[in-house]
Specification:
The chain is of the alpha/beta class. It contains 4 helices and 12 strands. The strands form 4 sheets. The chain has a 5-stranded mixed sheet.
Length: 207
């Protein structure tokens, strides 16, 4: 539990761990912006991004990147050291009460066999999306096959790096059923995480 009420926040501009894949980067930026507006609307003060950015860049100059894109792995020692440098700088140079990470992450879900074939994850129900003209989804379609979805994870640390909150909220599935062919199948949507209402719902669930 935080020692004092959280009023002033530094919103991290990096993910807590591996970055979102390239096809979700725009959605990640959109989600952070909407989260920032949500926090302001709820009475929190968001300090300028440079407080996090400058400290993080200094940590990278000292320890190098903790994320290896070739393996997709995080060097936990480098990550911990970078977090310590960043938190120390924020603690020494601002009056922030907390550092908030708002991270989009990808995970598996499946649509059920119910009437509406909802995919249910992290508090949301999402209907299957259909792409293209066609005769619909065949009766023997495998609704339980795994597809990817995106959700948001909110993690809050105080400036001494004590984790005081973590939660998740669902956003949307990333795949639609292509019904143009005689053999409909799931394909990744061209527009990902572009529905602000879905993002807002996920953020409200996560906070």
């Amino acid at each position: 539990v935080a020692e004092k009420p959280i009023k002033k926040i530094v919103l991290a501009t990096e993910n807590l761990g591996a970055p979102a894949p390239s096809y979700l980067q725009a959605g990640q930026r959109r989600t952070r912006y909407i989260a920032s507006e949500y926090l302001k609307d709820n009475g929190y003060t968001i300090l300028p991004d440079y407080h996090f950015d400058n400290a993080w860049k200094q940590a990278l100059r000292t320890y190098g990147s903790a994320y290896d894109p070739t393996t997709g792995k995080i060097d936990t020692d480098s990550w911990r050291a970078a977090m310590i440098i960043t938190a120390t700088s924020i603690r020494d140079n601002t009056d922030a009460d907390a550092i908030v990470f708002v991270d989009v992450f990808e995970h598996e879900v499946s649509h059920g066999y119910g009437m509406k074939h909802y995919a249910r994850f992290y508090g949301v129900n999402r209907k299957p999306a259909l792409k293209g003209p066609g005769s619909g989804v065949p009766i023997d379609f495998d609704w339980y096959q795994p597809i990817k979805a995106a959700s948001v994870m909110v993690t809050i640390y105080d400036v001494n790096l004590n984790r005081i909150f973590i939660s998740r909220g669902g956003i949307d599935t990333l795949y639609a059923i292509d019904i143009k062919s005689s053999n409909p199948k799931f394909i990744r949507k061209k527009k990902l995480l572009d529905d602000e209402d879905d993002i807002e719902e996920g953020i409200e669930l996560a906070f």
